[in-house]
Amino acid sequence: IPAPLPILRMLPFIVTIILLVIISSERFRRKWGLAKPEALGVPYIKE
């Protein structure tokens, strides 16, 4: 089944967006042990 050329040209972008959404999901992070940075949300105070 031949696909239209514009859809084939958009495919790399669509795959990239899907992968970024999957990787940033909480379920994926818990499964692979990817924790958030410890200093997330802690303000930087210059001494």
Cα radius of gyration in angstroms? 18 Å
Question: Can you tell me the overall shape?
Answer: elongated
User: What is the count of DSSP helices, taking H or I runs of 4+ residues?
Assistant: 2
The quaternary structure here is single chain
Strand portion: under 5%
Count of individual beta strands: 0
Largest sheet: none
Tell me about this structure.
This protein is an all-alpha fold. It has two helices and no strands. The longest helix is centred in the first third of the chain and has 19 residues, at about 5-25. The N and C termini lie far apart (about 65 Å). The mean pLDDT is about 85.
Keywords for this structure?
2 helices; 47 residues; elongated; mainly alpha
Topology of this protein?
Elements: H1 5-23, H2 26-32
Quick structural gist:
The chain is mainly α and 47 residues long. It is built from two helices and no strands.
